[in-house]
User: What shape does this take?
Amino acid sequence: MLTESISFDDGKPHTPIYKSTRNDAVDFRRPSTSFLPRGRALFWEGEEQSQKIEIVEGVVRAVRLLENGNRQILAFYWPGDVVMPTHSIHQEFTAEALTDCRVIRSKVSGACRIDQPCGAHHVLAETLTLVLTMSQKNCIARIAWLLLRIRPHLPVDAKRPEALRLQLPRADIADHVGTSLETVCRTLAEFKAKKLIDLPNRKTIRFIDLNGLARISNGPSAD
Assistant: This one.
């Protein structure tokens, strides 16, 4: 509520001054972030999810469990990505913190719309791209393709300014592009030997020849 206060000086009214009462105070506080340790689920496949979740820090993976007990990583969420409730009653995938994460959770009135950032739309787009990639590229080309896709999202390593922190474990790379852990390890070693990348340690990567990686990514089709 606003109260009007008019002061008089020599009998002449001055411009009204409006004072806010306590009920008129506007709360400009930003939503607080919550911490999720590595491996914690934001929500599970088959669970109801009615919150908007914004990734502030860290990486989240969207996982679908297969009938044989294996998993398929459908997509990765990076800082700035938003997961919105879907039109489905239950979630079609599990969202797990791949690294230590900070997220903002907030309630929303309904499911995501076409013009909004949405976890379901993101996963669908990523899955369609992944299906096309897996059908048209061999496993070596798929690994090169993924490295190029994640490169813009990887943070700089504090101890090695020219290197980036490789936040995706090799097992997650394998489960995303549809190959074995051994193939991923062998392929990364081959890329290093060809001076396409450097691997200072298991958790950092330095891109040396982006054009060379791109040629491999666009190379022979899958058998």
